[in-house]
Design goal:
heterodimer, A: about 350 residues, alpha+beta, 2 domains, three-stranded antiparallel β-sheet, 13 helices, about 35% helix, about 20% strand, globular, B: about 280 residues, alpha/beta, 6 helices, 16 strands
Chain lengths: ~350, ~280
């Protein structure tokens, strides 16, 4: 079942939703950047945003989270509106980690309590800001610009014309959110074909690409490729930005804190990073002491080992790691460098 | 999602039943498993031993009682958590999670010779292996324990070693790195690899279980393979930093393997192909 809604009615609907529960969405801040914030007024929404620095993974997997049993009961129902396709795919990738053979109760709870409304992208994100440039390549990774997954989200929204949106609920929760909105008009065949037309046009706007065919094995076979050392030694600062902005990074660390009464303590988990020097340290030694090893871990995990672990790639092509890298280290450049080896090999 | 979803990060309390100081740096604790007998515990698996306010540390079982009523951990004071745990006494409580990990594949050695190679504190995770091997000794051809330590004073479980050696069911070979006058169970001076030549059975008909520091395992595995053992028959227990123990926190990854849930025991050739280890 699909519906059509005008922009005005869409905003009215969001205002209705936000009067009942917490609704988060892309909002333009005073610095001219879009961030996901709680929305009280739909007028503040920025539906034309291209990318946000901190992906909506923070709603299901917060950067710092108390992991005591009682904090499970504190989760409230909420709605996240305007998640881009790549970021929704990223959440489905996180699902494979946290809801796989061992289930994480805290993640499961937030995932259950958070309704997700996806907003498809009408063009590749490559906007230039004074200090950074967006570098999306989701089309190469099969995660965008339009949603490819069939489940795990609640509503899919596509702009199919001026001030006109196609609304496709995909779950019971999604239907409930739409409720008995009288403004909803059933979508016609032409609306759906318009959606495909826009998707085809959007795909043509991509300039950044990565050929992922055979890439996992190629990277696994070339662990000693010099590109890791050259890039790491000349440019990597080990700042961990790439992993903090990555929407699929799942690593965390656990920290106990003694409270002020000096009798009780609390246990938190917080995002950790494989780029941090002590990440792989044990009393016996540090198994990734060099930046080369840590950078290789990032690249090969996202584009190679992830496949073996979860049967999908760990990169959704959002381009954040290279956008927010202070020295512009590009994951795809390193992968392409390794791919050159394969091409050379073939010529011989 | 139902509320009955088990929270794997939620620890439960266990009480210390007894404590023994093995050396000034190493303590052995017996914990009561009362109320949790249904959790099956396997040699090679580990618990996350936690102390609220300090954190958790992954420690392997160093013995499991046959009726699952209690289990033993031998802990070396290495970091904050282990130091704090070793300061506890009988009657104190720990918050633990577990058991986690895959355990030693003991079935693989049935009908073959079983060779246990331990280095230092690596003896602890291998002790339940020897208990299990001796319990079903008829299933195996010949049993070996090769155990290397830095010095004579820190050899663990001395009484038990003597009992094993005297029983004649298992050949016990000991070595110490530091020169010594002692001849405890015929221990010899040198690295643990010097003992590999004393294995008097064909290695291709054997399965090895190795645990120790990673550099020790490197040379033991290479030594065994040079002497004819198949890499797939050499099992090693890896140590990595573990926070969650269920493959979520990512710290323990070696290539595509999570040491915490895919391991900690791996066949040598299964883990060797990845980067960032000493093997």
């Amino acid at each position: 079942m699909a519906f059509v809604l005008s922009k005005k009615d869409l905003f009215n609907w969001i205002d209705d939703l936000s009067s009942a529960k917490d609704v988060f969405g892309p909002v333009l801040n005073h610095r001219g950047e879009t961030i996901f914030e709680k929305i009280s007024d739909s007028k503040k929404l920025d539906l034309n945003y291209q990318s946000v620095m901190t992906s909506p993974r923070k709603f299901v997997y917060p950067s710092r989270q108390n992991i005591d049993q009682r904090s499970l009961d504190k989760a409230k129902d909420r709605v996240v509106f305007g998640i881009h396709s790549c970021d929704m795919h990223a959440v489905s990738v996180l699902d494979r980690t946290f809801l796989g053979d061992h289930k994480d109760a805290y993640y499961a709870k937030l995932r259950e309590k958070t309704a997700t409304i996806v907003l498809n992208c009408n063009k590749a994100c490559k906007k230039k800001y004074p200090n950074y440039t967006l570098k999306g390549f989701c089309a190469s990774m099969g995660t965008g610009p339009f949603l490819k997954i069939k489940k795990g989200y609640d509503i899919e929204i596509t702009e199919i014309g001026k001030q006109l949106y196609l609304i496709e609920p995909n779950s019971k929760k999604g239907k409930e959110l739409l409720g008995k909105n009288k403004k909803l008009k059933t979508a016609l065949k032409k609306d759906l074909s318009q959606k495909s037309k826009i998707e085809r046009a959007a795909l043509k706007t991509f300039t950044k690409e990565l050929d992922t065919k055979g890439l996992p094995k190629l990277l696994a076979d070339n662990l000693a490729h010099p590109v890791y050392r050259e890039t790491a030694d000349s440019r990597c600062l080990g700042c961990t930005n790439c992993t903090m902005v990555c929407p699929t990074c799942f690593c965390y660390s656990i920290e106990d804190t003694t409270l002020y009464d000096l009798k009780t303590s609390k246990r938190d988990r917080y995002w950790d990073s494989c780029q941090e020097i002590n990440f792989a340290k044990v009393h016996d030694g540090n198994f990734r002491e060099t930046r080369e090893a840590r950078l290789r871990q990032f690249v090969t995990h996202k584009l190679s080992n992830w496949m073996e672990q979860y049967d999908c790639l760990g990169c959704v092509g959002c381009g954040r790691c290279m956008t927010w890298c202070p020295t512009n280290i590009d994951l795809t450049d390193m992968a392409k460098e390794v791919q050159k080896v394969a091409k050379k090999g073939k010529r011989k | 999602m139902k509320d009955t979803l088990k929270n794997i990060l939620q620890p439960y309390s266990v009480m210390i039943e007894s404590k023994k100081d093995e050396t000034p740096e190493i303590c052995t604790f017996t914990f009561s498993n009362a109320g949790n007998e249904k959790r099956s515990l396997l040699p090679g698996q580990y618990n996350m031993l936690g102390l609220p306010g300090y954190g958790e540390a992954a420690i392997s079982f160093s013995s499991i009682s046959p009726d699952n009523k209690s289990f033993i951990h031998t802990i070396r004071k290495a970091g904050n958590v282990t130091k704090a745990i070793c300061a506890l006494n009988v009657g104190d409580k720990l918050e633990i999670r577990g058991p986690f990990g895959n355990g030693w594949p003991l079935k693989k050695a049935e009908g073959k010779n079983a060779i246990v190679v331990a280095g230092g504190i690596g003896m602890a995770p291998l002790r339940p292996v020897i208990h299990a091997l001796l319990k079903n000794k008829k299933k195996y051809k010949k049993l070996f324990l090769i155990y290397g330590s830095k010095e004579e004073e820190i050899i663990l479980y001395k009484e038990e070693l003597e009992a094993w050696a005297n029983s004649g069911d298992i050949k016990v070979l000991l070595s110490v790195d530091k020169e010594t006058d002692s001849c405890f169970l015929g221990l010899c001076h040198g690295l643990v690899t010097t003992l590999l030549d004393k294995i008097d059975v064909p290695l291709k008909d054997s399965v090895s279980y190795v645990c120790g520091s990673e550099s020790m395992m490197r040379f033991v595995c290479k030594g065994l393979i040079e002497r004819g053992q198949k890499p797939k028959d050499v099992y090693i227990s890896m140590e990595r930093r573990m926070k969650c123990a269920v493959g979520h926190c990512g710290h323990c990854q070696i290539g595509a393997k999570f040491v915490c849930k895919d391991g900690p025991v791996f066949a040598y050739d299964e883990i060797k192909k990845y980067a960032d280890h000493l093997l």
